[in-house]
Every structure is written in C-alpha cells, then in structure tokens.
Protein 1
Amino acid sequence: MGWNQFVTSIFDRSFQTLERALTGLTENELDKQPNPDCNTIGWLAWHLTRGQDRSFAGLMQEEQIWMKESWYQKFNRPPKGTDTGFGHSLEDVATFQSPSADIILAYHRAVLERTKRYLASLTEEELERKLSGQVFPTVTARIAAVISDNLQHVGQIAYIRGLLKGKGWSNI
C-alpha cells in the first residue's frame, strides 16, 4: 500500500464512523446540545466537512463544493466560503439548524470523493509544496491538520451520540 492509499483509508474510515454515528438521528437529536456551552452533532458534522471542503479546495485551487454545488442552500446557510464554523460563538452553535443526516452525509460524501481524487493524483514532490500565507506551511501540514480535525470531531460526534442513545449504537 502506498502513502496515497494509506491517507485515503484514513478519510474513508473517518466517513464510515461519521455515517454510523449519524444514522437514525432526527434533526432534533442532531441539534441537541448536551450542555449549553457544547457543540451539537449536526454542527460538528457540518464543521468538519466544511473544513475539509475549504482546505482541499484551497490545495487544489478550485471552488469549494459548498459554493459550486450550492450546498449552502440545503443547509440554509449564507453563500460564503468562509462560513466554516471557525470563530462561531456559543450563540451561533446554539442557533445552528441541521438539515437531515442524509443531507449532511451527502455533502460529506461529495467532499470525500474530491479529496480522494486529489490524493490519488498527489505526488511526493507536491506534498512538500510551500503554501504562502497559510497557517500550515506545506501541503503535508495542511492534510495532516484536516486528518487531525476530522478524527477529533468524529470522536466528539460519537461521544455525543453515546450520550443521547446509550451504549451499543456503534453496532448499527
């Protein structure tokens, strides 16, 4: 297995966990805050997908799927590429209204497919390409940051799902 396939398998596994965690949840459950100062499952799933979409669109120098395919309409969000959840206040999180789990997963699937196409075409030389004006100085650093964010947020989603549904939900 090459590094491309290995990295792709991490994104695939993250999606599989996200899909299991969202399956069967209502919009009310997606929007339930375990505590008034906590994120919701729906917000976390949207945020992790928005971060991946924005990051890979930037690496590929393409338009975000969020804008290109008008996903913002399905989420009833503003048509802004910068609307990713970074910098959201507690009020922003509390007022976030999730669409259905199917819509969240469809958006994530579209982002994942583009991510996989990019990773399949990525060369080792491109991994070390310097990114000017970025928090992460290279393509490798940016991809590592997206993986880290996805794993953290999928874990948070799974934990909140367990709080809502109890033990055993991951067997679905």
Protein 2
Amino acid sequence: MGREPLLVVIVGPTASGKTSLSIALAERFSGEIVSCDSVAVYRGFEIGTAKPSREERARVPHYLLDVADPTEPFTAGDYARIARPALREIASRKKLPIIVGGTGLYLRALLEGLFAGPPRSEELRQRLRASTEEHGPEHLHQMLRHLDPAAAEKIHPNDHSKLIRAIEVCMAARSKMSEMWKHGRDPLMEFRVLRIGLDPERKALYERINRRAARMFAEGLVAETWTLLGKYGELVPALTSLGYKQAMQVIRGECDEATAIAAAQQGHRNYAKRQMTWFRREPDVHWLRGFGDGPSLQSQAESLVEAKF
C-alpha cells in the first residue's frame, strides 16, 4: 500500500513572499496552488488582495481565487468544503498541491475541520452589533466572558466577527463554544502535510509592507474600490478589509490619500503581528528565516519538499 500524497502548506505574514515561494516550488515539483485568503476568494477584489498576476497564474494553475460573489457570506467552512475537493483533484493527477495564504482560520478549517455549530442568525447578529454600538466595543467580549470564559480567553477583544460567532453559538446551541470545539471536527486525513513558515526579519518585513501598501494606492486601489462600491454597495463586508477600508475613507472624504496610506501601512503591520502569533501555534511548522523570493530560502524549501517525496 502506497503512502498518502504530499500536501505542502506555506504560511507566514503578509508581504513575506509566500506567492513567489509557492510558484517556485510548483514549477520545481509539478505543483498547483490553492489560495488560502479570505478576501481573494471574492471576485473583483484585485489590487487590495495582492492576488497573483495574470502572468503568475499562467505559469502555475491557481484555485480558490474569485470563487465567491462579494454580496454573499463566505465562511471558513465554505472555504474548506471547496478547497478539499480541489486538493484531491490535484493529487489525483499526480500533481503536488500547495496551499499558500495568510488566513489562519481558513487553513485550520481545511486541515483540522470545524465543529458542527448552529447556522448563522442574521437577526441575532444585528442585535449584537446594535448592542455594541450602544454599549461600546468591549461589550461583546464582556458578554462572551460571561457565557463562555474559555472561548473569551482565545478570542481577541477587538475581533468582533469571532466574538459574535462565539456568542451566537452559545445562545443558539445552548452550549459553550469551547466545549463544541472539542467535538465533531473532521480533520483532513488523506495527505501527508509539510508546513513551511516564512519568518523574515521584522524591520525588513515592515519596510516591504509599507512599500506594498503605498504601491496599492499608486496602482489604483481607490478607483477599484469606487468600482466595487458602485457594483455591490457599501455594505459588502470585504470593503472593510485592510486597504479597501482606507480607500473607502478617501472616497467618503474622511481623509486624504496620504493619511489613508499611512493608516493602511499601520493596519497591515498590525495584521502581520497577528498572523505570526497565529501561525506560531500551528504544529510542525518548518520555519525559514527570510523572504520567500530569496534564492537561498527557496533552496531550503526545495530541500524540505524533496525529503518528503
């Protein structure tokens, strides 16, 4: 009986060169790439997501880009349900599936599965949002500490979407979310998983993040946001993601472009910190010091993959 097929997972903070490394590995080992990005799944969101270019997509097949309408909710569970068959289809053709991206929750849903929680309740969510506006941003975390202290310990007080989901689970299922986490997961079992993490020096990473954020605005992020706003309306959740949020502030006249760029740079730097905190909790990651577009790091990554074949 043969071994399970290999699955390579590339994680790391934004602007660390994950795309470059994934393409290098795909070309070296006959691989195909599955994106793991919670905004890149939406059609029309191009500049602010730093999606692979047309040229890059022509070099290597990419999956899970542009698969969702921006007006429709797209959850970590939705991602896992679409991504798992894509991995199996790639492996069935004797190609190497490579997951690349920075959305930790989506990756966890894909590899470990999600618990069978209750469906979303928009009515309850609206009440919770209204309560937050009335009582302040700390209100949701305080509510969750009362309902499920263990879950509250694991969720940042400013992560309102996760707080709302945790409260929703507690109220709808009449069970603590932290208890449900322990049951009902459906881990991905049919692959041998090699996790490669990018860990660039922080000062150099922040410089890259600053340049990338400025370049997004120079390449037309505000114009792209105008187009998305006209097509889908301002209630599309993805328009609150980094970059698009600041472009919306320019459109509304709340700040000038220079201020928006500085805010986007700061937001992306903070996001990079959160990503590293999340990914350092992932098991069995082979951390490589440097950027994914560096020849030395690519050589190290190739050696890791070669050893697993």
Protein 3
Amino acid sequence: MSGTGMVSVSSAAAVFDRLASVYDEKFTRSTIGRAQRNQVWHRLMLAFQPGDRILEMNCGTGEDAFFLARNGISVVACEASPEMIVIAQQRKNQEVNAAKIQFRVLASESLHTLETSQPFDGAFSNFSGLNCVADLEPVASNLATLVKPGGRVLLCLSSRFCLAEVLWFLARGQVRKAFRRLRGRTLARFEDLVIVVFYPTVRRIRHIFAPWFHMESFRAVGLLTPPSYLESWACRHNDVVKFMTRVDGILAGWPLLRCLGDHVLLEFQRNAR
C-alpha cells in the first residue's frame, strides 16, 4: 500500500477482493443495481451484434459478460480482483453459453499486456471501475491498439455531479457529502481499506480519448433511479423505482440532464486509421 497524507490507500484489487463475496447480493441482484444495469444493457445491445468479439474491463463477477454471451456475443472479460474472477469462474460453470466467455485477472492499467490474435469488435466498462484509475490516457491508447477501426467503446463511470445524491444529502443537512464529487476525487472506505475514487468530467474523458476515438453520444444512467446506497429505500418503494426507471429511459439523453445521473455512459467509435 502507498500513503496519501496520513491515509494509507489500498489498491482497487484489494478493495474488490474484500467485496467479492457480497458484491452480487449487495449490488448485482439489488433493486437499484438491476434498474441501472438494464439501462446499460439496452445500449450494449444497440452497439454490439451477435457474432461480435468484445473486450470487457472491470467485469466484476461477470454479470455483463453472461448477458452478452446469452445474446451471441463473445467476451474476453478482465478484472483486477482475483477474488471477483474466482466467483465469475464459479458462475461460468452454470452458464449454457460459457464457451463464449474468457475471464482474465487483468487491471485496466495493464491492457498493454493483453495478447490477442485479432482486434476486438468493441469494448466496454460498466459501473465505475474506471473511476479507480488515476490516469485514463494509457487506457485510451491501449484500447486504440485492441479495438478495430469503427469499433465501439462504451464506458460507464460515476458522474461528477449526481442530482439524486445532492438532493438526498442536502435534505439531511449533509452539505459536504452532497457535493463531494465536485472535488474531482474522494476517499472511499470499505471496512479498514481506503481507495481513491476519481470523478473526471465528460469533457476531460472526451479529450483523453480524442486522438483515437470520437464520442458519438453520452447519457445519464440513474438520472432519477437513485444511487445504490439507497437500496433500503428502493426496496420499500419498488413501484416508484420502476416509474423512475421508465422516466430515465426518456430523459437520460437530454442535454443538461444527461450530466446529472449517478453514472454517465459514454459511447465512442474508433477512428479510421
């Protein structure tokens, strides 16, 4: 571990190793997790086609990879946490389309070590894995060597400003928490572990990827659907969450509103060589 001031900062892999055994229970199968993931899945199926071969970064326990495989898409799914990959491999034994998925222990910062016989048709990262990466430029340049010209790259990151979060904490008089993302980085604590979480702006991400990719669109994920830490509230108001999700489908791509969700989904296309 390395030190930042008086705080001992852990690696993302160490934190997600700790979370691996409860991740599916706490998020994958949660009301909010399902609602937000379905919004991303809709966009994945518009971007990728059966027969495509896709690179996934930050795959966690494999939920997105299994979804794509069921829809005829092959996935090389990478994750920094060995414990997450252990669970993903266990789940793979239950999958009918397991042959379409390869799981690998590999951090997003180490994509340059990934050996492949042919370029990928596209790539994606879901739910904030890239928010744990301090410098996204090497990720962008490595993706440029791995994704074929014209291939699509979808990146879902925690946004710089989450309207639902701001309103929730302001209503409770917690002003510092309400605007914590605006500082650009925060320290997140998981039991005795601490990790740095970064919140780059859409403009910054577009600038980083611009030498190799052009941004086609971006949209909010979880504009009204609340952040995952409000799961207990969501379970008590399931009909409200369903309504919020439907409204998200209408408003998520609107100018101004698309920057205000819990997450933002950016869609890029690889430039022609």
